[in-house]
Structure formats: structure tokens, C-alpha cells
Write a structure and sequence with these properties.
By secondary structure, the protein is an alpha/beta fold. It has 9 helices and 9 strands. It is globular, with a radius of gyration of 19 Å. Bound molecules: pantoate. Pantoate binds next to strand 2 and helix 6.
Length: about 280
């Protein structure tokens, strides 16, 4: 696996591959890689001739007071994991390579509506930062396909919407969430959890599963299901930001006859903010 830090070096490798007729799959990450990321690489290898991964902790998607400074940075371990997983090229830029000026002074991409709801209500500017960096990385890598985990379901929809609205020539390929045996979704931020918090954190998946069970059983009292699971989370010691049943396609509030739903939740536990979701399709 080659590692490049500059856009120029990245462009040179990519030009060679394209001349050779290779298709390119792209896995953008912020590093501190876990099995969820490696699943993206596995899937990427199936979809294209060459796999490019990036590691960049994007300051523009952190709000003031969030964990940008503390976000775990483990580039040597990450590079080794990517190499072992069969990645062909790692793009590992410094901040100045991506944002030669202050991010807030530079052009940005905004996906209105979708970005303002759910996590967007609690993390103002977050999805603008995500859309902007993903657009920039797409322009640098120009992949045929890019892979994103369904754990960040709202992010996935924001990116899909950006790609559709701006006619970006890239296919977005979602990959199912990877979980611990307890159900806890893998996340780089799980490293912030103490051992005790980690067992409590599985409650988020439990409550999503309980809500999914009610939906599958035909219950359409969305507000009551949300209220009940909110109370369950609070009783377990989590502080929910939201627990919400939405339409899978666009995160709109569902009607009783909608068949493809997604239950999304975010909750705080100690200094960690957990997010997770479950898709439910009913006949
Ligand atoms: O999901 C992430 O790790 C980040 O939001 C992404 C897509 C790499 C953009 O910085």
C-alpha cells in the first residue's frame, strides 16, 4: 500500500491507474479504524480494481466545544490495518493540504433541510462540514464508487442528496453497521467509554430493537413508541438527544401506511455521544 500526503502525489497515482483502465473505490474515514471501517474496505475490494482510503480528522465538521482536539488519532496503527485489509492507496493529508485557508473562510457545500434535523439540531454546521469535505475528497479522488457505513444514516442520506443534486459522477454504496456481540454499534468514539458505560451503551441498541419489534408487530403509534423508549434510555442512565421514527428514504415524519422506516437515536453517556439506527420494513 502506498501512502501519500499531497493532492499532487495522490493525482499521480490515480492518473496511472486510470490510464491502465482501473476502476476506483473510495473509503473516506477520520481514522482510529475499527472493524466497521475494515468492512468498508472489504466491500470496496469487491466493487472496484483499486481501493483508496483517506484519513483526515475534518475540523469543519466539529462544532465549537466538541471533541476535535481529543478525537483519537492513530495513523500508524490505521495504516497497518488498511494495508492488511488490502487497501491499495492511503491518502493521509495534513490540515493545510485540505484547507489552505481557515475552513470557515472557504467555499462550502450545504444540503438544506436534511442537514438541519436530528443530529443537525444538536451539532449546528456538522453536516455542512461533512458535505464540504466529502465533496472536496470526491474531487481529489474522483472515485467510481464511495462507501459509507449505515451507522451514520443521516450522513449517508446527506451525501446521497449532495451527489444527486450536484450531479456528481460517483455511486454511493452503503454498508451495514458492524456491532459488538452486545449490539453496540462500532464507533471510534466508543473508546471514550469506561467499562461500565460500555455495558450501559448497549441499551441504545436494545431500545431501538424494542421499538423495531413494536413496529414489526403492527404498532403505528409512533409518538408513544418514541416516548416509551426515551424513558427506557433515561432510566438506564443515558441522556437522549432524540429517539425518532422516520421514513427510510428521506427522514421525513412517517405516515401510518409507510412501509420502509428507520428508527434513529442519539444519546449522551458520560462524555460520549452515541448514535445508532435500525431500519424496519413492514408489509
Ligand atoms: O464518517 C466519517 O468518518 C466522516 O464524517 C467522513 C465521511 C470521513 C467525513 O469526514
Amino acid at each position: 500500500m502506498d501512502i501519500v500526503a499531497s493532492k499532487t502525489a495522490l493525482g499521480e497515482v490515480l492518473r496511472r491507474w486510470r490510464t491502465d483502465g482501473c476502476s476506483i473505490a473510495f473509503v473516506p474515514t477520520m481514522g482510529n479504524l475499527h472493524d466497521g471501517h475494515l468492512r468498508l474496505v472489504e466491500e470496496a475490494k469487491r466493487l472496484a480494481d483499486r481501493v483508496v482510503a483517506s484519513i483526515f480528522v475534518n475540523p469543519a465538521q466539529f462544532s465549537p466545544g466538541e471533541d476535535f482536539g481529543a478525537y483519537p488519532r492513530t495513523p500508524a496503527e490505521d495504516a497497518e490495518k488498511l494495508r492488511a485489509a488490502g487497501t491499495h492507496l492511503l491518502f493521509l493529508p495534513e490540515t493545510g493540504e485540505i484547507y489552505p485557508d481557515r475552513p470557515e473562510a472557504m467555499a462550502f457545500v450545504e444540503v438544506p433541510g436534511l442537514s438541519d434535523d436530528l443530529c443537525g439540531r444538536f451539532r449546528p454546521g456538522h453536516f455542512r462540514g461533512v458535505a464540504t469535505i466529502v465533496c472536496k475528497l470526491f474531487n481529489m479522488v474522483r472515485p467510481d464508487v464511495a462507501l459509507f457505513g449505515e451507522k451514520d444514516y443521516q450522513q449517508l442520506l446527506v451525501i446521497r442528496r449532495m451527489v444527486a443534486d450536484l450531479d456528481m459522477p460517483v455511486r454511493i454504496h452503503p454498508v451495514a453497521t458492524v456491532r459488538e456481540p452486545s449490539g453496540l454499534a462500532l464507533s471510534s468514539r466508543n473508546g471514550y467509554l469506561t467499562a461500565e458505560e460500555k455495558s450501559l451503551a448497549a441499551e441504545l441498541f436494545e431500545s431501538l430493537s424494542a421499538a423495531a419489534g413494536r413496529l414489526r408487530g403492527g404498532d403505528r403509534n409512533f409518538a408513544e413508541i418514541e416516548r416509551q423508549q426515551w424513558a427506557v434510555l433515561e432510566a438506564a442512565g443515558l441522556r437522549p438527544d432524540y429517539f425518532s421514527i422516520r421514513r427510510q428514504a428521506d427522514l421525513a415524519l412517517p405516515q401510518a401506511d409507510d412501509k420502509h422506516l428507520v428508527i434513529l437515536a442519539a444519546a449522551r453517556l458520560g462524555k460520549t455521544r452515541l448514535i445508532d439506527n435500525l431500519k424496519v420494513s413492514v408489509d
